[in-house]
């Protein structure tokens, strides 16, 4: 699309910025919803603290613009300050006075995801892609959650961490992984939201850290490499959405999450009994044997409460 001056105009895909007729048209063309997650979190001095949700939402928007679908408002309340995240924060953030985290506990986050699914299912979407830009054990728990709730949801569901959408791996070697405020995430955000990255803020290479949780290879960030990675992620998501819609059409599910009571029943029957075993709920899910000292500011939420 172009405006009266012949300049490119992106078709709006963000749910909250669309008019009813626009939403109806996009829904009729491709009834796929992208729901993205992240939080405000230390990501080095060079990146905006909202990196996780910013990149996930921007990737989803690019996918919807190029291939169809609607993008839900991003959710900035995500898991931190507990269990494995407290162990990580002790080392990578340190005992700073203000960390600028927008963290919520696991049981709150996953319940919120269920409410998001109710919204999408009630409206009649055929597929929902749930993508988190925040890593650690939570993205594995999100897959567990999707497996638990899919029998209750008509829309076909798929969850992933954004790095999983790049089959080539950032360096093109097939090593699929993300990082934290290192060359991968910094390159991604630089490609997607240039105003949210300021390379001039990087500390000297030999300056002692932890530099507000900056990755050790952040100086190797490359905007063009980030653009290439994003392109691969967009292609992956578009193909996955197509698979989900085809699955819905083949199965023609009759069940939909409709009422608040439906969600409460689903939570009580499927999720609540399994929640204590979620990795995000464990004090040391990787078995590192590392303990957060009682004197640390990260100790207050280190051990999840009893279910």
Topology overview:
Layout: H1 20-29, E1 32-37, H2 51-67, E2 70-71, E3 78-79, H3 84-92, E4 103-104, H4 106-123, E5 127-132, H5 138-149, E6 156-161, H6 183-192, H7 223-251, H8 260-271
Parallel strand pairs: 1-2, 1-5, 3-4, 5-6
Helix pairs in contact: 2-6, 2-7, 4-8, 6-7
What does this 3D model show about the protein?
The chain is an alpha/beta fold. It has one domain: Rossmann fold (3-Layer(aba) Sandwich). The chain is built from 8 helices and 6 strands. The chain has helices at 20-29, 51-67, 84-92, 106-123, 138-149, 183-192, 223-251, 260-271, and strands spanning 32-37, 70-71, 78-79, 103-104, 127-132, 156-161. The strands form 2 sheets. Strands 2-1-5-6 form a 4-stranded parallel sheet. A two-stranded parallel ribbon has the order 3-4. Strand 3, helix 3 (84-92) and strand 4 form a beta-alpha-beta unit. Helix 2 (51-67) packs across helix 6.
Brief sketch in words of this structure:
The chain is α/β, with parallel strands linked by helices. It has 8 helices and 6 strands, in the order αβαββαβαβαβααα.
